[in-house]
Amino acid sequence: MMWMIFAIAAWAFGWWINMRLARGRPVRWRSLAAPIVFGVTLIAIWEGVVRGLEISPVLLPAPSAIAVRFGASLDILWVDFVQTVLKGALSGYVIGCGAAFLIAVAVDRFPFLQRGLLPVGNFVAALPIIGMAPILVMWFGFDWQSKAAVVVVMVFFPMLVNTVQGLQATDTMQRDLMRTYGASYWVTLFKLRLPAAMPFVFNGLKIGTTLALIGAIVAEFFGSPIRGMGFRISTSVGQLALDLVWAEIVVAAIAGSAFYGAMALIERRITFWHPSQRN
Amino acid sequence: MKQSFAPVLTVVGLLLVVWYAAAIWLNADWTYDKAKRSGEIVTTTSLIKDTWAQDKPKLPAPHQVAAEIWRTTVEKKITSKRSLIYHSWITLSATLLGFGLGTVLGTLLAVGIVYNRTMDMSVMPWVIASQTIPILAIAPMIIVVLNAVGISGLLPKAMIGMYLSFFPIVVGMVKGLRSPDQMQLDQMRTWHASASQTFWRLRLPASMPYLFTSLKIAMAASLVGAIIGELPTGAVAGLGARLLAGSYYGQTIQIWSALLMAAALAAVLVGIIGMVQRITLKRMGMAQ
Predict the structure, then answer these.
(1) What ipTM score was computed for the predicted complex, to two decimals?
(2) What pLDDT is attached to residue B115?
């Protein structure tokens, strides 16, 4: 009962703080503080409800239990992180995005192919590509190579479509200007069209970050060595060790947010001229 | 549309050629292996013939997959456990339920975010952060946990679809509901419109183009969610179960047919939304 009251009090308190934050002038620290307060409130409510209703840890462990487990099994989590994120997701991401980028630049020289590739690429990007995972695991074996392959296939089409679209982003006036300067294809590409395509390219890169993590983890469900986040999640669910599963989820969430954040940061540095990046 | 018809056909044709070539390349090992054991000599024609007609090829040729789809859709009874239509229906129902729930949740959140500053400041960043969590990765756990508390069948799969599809709806609808500019809002005020009138007559209609774009993304996401949601249920029914069963028994043709079926499903669903979009926007006078 005490814990339920705690949960309700936490909710009321968090709401009150955010009401006050929202009412003030929108300065930078306020807009940073509001979501943090919201998150902390959510965790407090979670803790209170789990303890108050005495929910079995087999169903939903309390945040404190997850934190304890997280601290206790750092070594396992690190091994899984290296296997899934660094070996599987990251290598696949680099290969997939790199290949898509180069192919998009190559296809760009042939308007005919390009007109055909855009609809097909858009279509494929909307498909449940993750279903390719069992096939690729069959082809490339159980280790990280197959996970990287799944990631390559998953990030390829969003990246391709975005880059092709980005390369079309310059208007005729700008290209004509380059022509009056007597610029060659390559000069035009590097000085005008690639920079102009960057906002689109980063859009593709950012979409790819989440896809890469999902691909690498889900591919492990179809077969993996005895380490990796997907492997740990599926076996821990079987052992009803949900606190470990949640610890893996925390790792995945941190890795995903950091990955996305890093891309957004690089985007800010490179496309500083774009209206959406200016203050 | 007509203009891009020939290029699209060319690209699809190219893909098919690559597919057939890859089938020869990937399946050749098995053919050579078999020929060595029986002492036959492999010629180019017999190699091509064999690699395109293996029972469990590494990569089945397109016509093998097409034949399998034909066999499991048209020639099987719909109620049969082997019918792809039956499995597609299972997946489709979970997809549609998840899509519906996600749309409702996403729209409500978007309205809350647009009308309530507190929600805008505190919830919106978390909506974005929620998508960096690879939800598909924890789908098995959600299914198992929901099963343990007595929720089984359609709903757990739909929940995953909902989680994936509410996000594009929230983002699109927030953008859409905010798309009327100050001039239009002021106009409503000079007409002394109430808040609900402003919502129903200005903000909601203005958000329609954004809504439909989001709906298409949400539908595709919900389908992926439903397929992944079927994996941990022990491969009972649904396209995801067909994928898993196929990968257990090395039935590559079955995997590919389930995959193409899922692709067709996605195409049809997104196509339907596109059609509704065109009709609706035309009747609202917003067609481009």
Answers:
(1) 0.71
(2) 85
